[in-house]
TrEMBL record:
GO annotation terms (biological process): malate-aspartate shuttle
Family: Belongs to the mitochondrial carrier (TC 2.A.29) family.
Subcellular location, principal: mitochondrion
TM spans (from-to): 299-322
Organism of this sequence: Myripristis murdjan (pinecone soldierfish)
Protein name as catalogued: Mitochondrial glutamate carrier 1
Solcar repeats, residue ranges: 7-94, 100-220, 230-319
GO molecular function, one term: L-glutamate transmembrane transporter activity
Length: 332
């Protein structure tokens, strides 16, 4: 049994990584639309809805414009999803020795959410800058002679460009490597963890809701107590429903996190000094409805992402690659 558990951990890490990469590749354009919609301010709306955002993105940036920031996600989603799924399994195993209650399942999810932010925060930080670049470029085209300033931490101006109506503005594409180097140079490692509090505020409740809900929905698909196997389509549907529910529940936290982690601001877009300041300014200037910006997109991202992830995870890609059957390892 001890050897099985040793083997199962690397298998679960492989499963989590593969699941994350497959899921992100499928839903990334919707995630890009979510980020741009969340960063829109009242009175400066470039996009009406998700489809309008995607259509305008393709027209102005080409098809691959919908995948801006995907390289960061694909690079870091493997350890992020591996940590999230494997940590949840680990905590559930530790807490199940005297019986696994719903409260213990929620504690396991809480532990998984806390572990994943080690990777999630810098990944989201870099991804948001790259995803939102197209929105800011479009805003520059609509506002002649506008000055866009990249601010780190809301203090010192690091990069400033001025654009005129004619000719059309030429926006230099900034890579994730350049952003990382600039942050490390000016702010150190802590620069990559800007918005950590908001990320924790989003990811912990998400995991607390998602993992217990998925476990119970998934259990309904078992053939019988003697035969605990579940059809792959049931794993997919359980992941979709649990992911969608959890995503909508924490959508306001995701809006706050996105605003805090956006370093480059458009014209007349305010900066925020922490979670409380961000919440108060959004409420005062945009109203409660602003906290649900991009909620539909987020649900459409998370539902298939976690549905695909759970199918890959339960199919047992890692166990197959390591030469073991999924059921022997999963029963460890």
């Amino acid at each position: 049994m001890a050897q099985q558990q040793q083997i199962s951990l690397p298998a679960k890490l492989i499963n989590g990584g593969v699941a994350g990469m497959v899921g992100v590749t499928c839903v990334f354009p919707i995630d890009l639309a979510k980020t741009r919609l969340q960063n829109q301010r009242s009175g400066q709306q470039l996009y009406k809805n998700m489809m309008d955002c995607l259509i305008k993105t393709v027209r102005s940036e080409g098809y691959f414009g919908m995948y801006r920031g995907a390289a960061v996600n694909l690079t870091l989603v493997t350890p992020e999803k591996a940590i999230k799924l494997a940590a949840n399994d680990f905590f559930r195993h530790q807490l199940s020795k005297d019986g696994l209650t719903v409260f213990k399942e929620m504690l396991a999810g809480c532990g998984a959410g806390m572990c994943q932010v080690i990777i999630t925060t810098p990944m989201e930080m870099l991804k948001i800058q790259l995803q939102d670049a197209g929105r800011l470029a479009a805003q520059q085209r609509l506002m002649p002679a506008m000055v866009t300033t990249l601010k780190l931490g809301g203090t010192s101006a690091v990069l400033s460009r001025s654009y005129n109506a004619n000719p059309a503005p030429q926006v230099t594409r900034v890579s994730a490597t350049q952003i990382t180097r600039e942050l490390l140079r000016t702010k150190g490692v802590t620069g990559l963890y800007k918005g950590l509090g908001a990320t924790l505020m989003r990811d912990i409740p998400f995991s607390v809701v998602y993992f217990p809900l998925f476990a119970h929905l998934h259990q309904f698909g078992q053939h019988s107590p003697e035969n605990p196997t579940v059809p792959f389509y049931w794993s997919f549907m359980s992941g979709c429903l649990a992911g969608c529910t959890a995503a909508v529940a924490v959508s306001p936290c995701d809006v706050v996190k996105t605003r805090l982690q956006s370093l480059k601001k458009g014209a007349n877009e305010e900066t925020y000094n922490g979670v409380v300041d961000c919440i108060s300014k959004i409420l005062r200037k945009e109203g409660p409805g602003a906290f649900l910006k991009g909620a539909t997109c987020r649900a459409l991202v998370i539902a298939p992402l976690f549905g695909i992830a759970q199918v890959v995870y339960f199919v047992g890609v890692g166990e197959f690659l390591l030469g073991y059957t999924p059921y022997n390892i999963y029963s460890a």
